[in-house]
Structure formats: structure tokens, C-alpha cells
Design brief:
6-stranded mixed beta sheet; 10 strands; about 50% strand
């Protein structure tokens, strides 16, 4: 059964950096995408990477500040966050899409989340 586990959250000051990790296990194939979301009022999509071709996508609010990457040998996806702002404070979750349309598809196998707090 597919499973995702997030880690790397913490407390940082405005302008600081954090790198979140999403460790994946139980996937039968590598042909899937991993998305990062954060809990605002409702889930806010943050970023996504298609593991099959490395294509990446970002929400406008994080573009040029966050970088998503994948280490396929470690089955881990990272979200490097720089220039953090108080409004980035949230619980961050990763989830998988095994849909043919990858990052545009439905996500499942949600992790339990990791808390990011940015102090002003």
C-alpha cells in the first residue's frame, strides 16, 4: 500500500529557509507525481513534480522562492523553501497522483503533514 511520510518542518524567522522531505514507499511503479499542499482555509496546492520526467509546477505564491526536487534512488521528494514569509505558516502535506495526467490529476495517499511556522 502506498505511503508518504513528511518531515523537515520547524520554526524559522521571516526570510529563513527550510527543506521539507516526502518519503514514499509501497508504490508499484515510479510513474507518478508528488504534490505538496498546505492547509490554509482548505487545502492550498503549492507545488508538484512528475517523477517520470522531472517536470515541475509551482503556485504563483511560491514561485521563485520554493524548489521541488526528487531523489528517485531514495524515493524522496524535497521542497526547498527560501524567503519564507509569515503567510507561509501552515501544515504542509504531500500526496501522490498516479493519474495519467499526473500533476493535474487527483491526489491520494496523503501523509500526516509537517508544521512550518514562520515568525515575524
Amino acid at each position: 500500500e502506498p505511503k508518504l511520510v513528511e518531515s523537515g518542518g520547524g520554526v524559522v524567522q521571516t526570510g529563513g529557509s527550510l527543506t521539507l522531505s516526502c518519503a514514499a514507499s509501497g508504490f508499484a511503479f515510479d510513474d507518478y507525481a508528488i504534490g505538496w499542499f498546505r492547509q490554509a482555509p482548505g487545502n492550498e496546492w503549492v507545488s508538484c513534480i512528475d517523477k517520470s520526467d522531472g517536470q515541475t509546477y509551482y503556485a504563483p505564491s511560491v514561485k521563485n522562492r520554493f524548489t521541488i526536487s526528487s531523489d528517485n534512488a531514495k524515493n524522496t521528494v524535497y521542497l526547498q523553501m527560501t524567503g519564507l514569509k509569515p503567510e507561509d505558516t501552515s501544515t504542509y502535506y504531500c500526496a501522490a497522483s498516479t493519474s495519467f495526467i499526473k500533476c493535474a490529476g487527483d491526489f491520494h495517499s496523503w501523509g500526516k503533514g509537517t508544521q512550518v511556522t514562520v515568525s515575524s
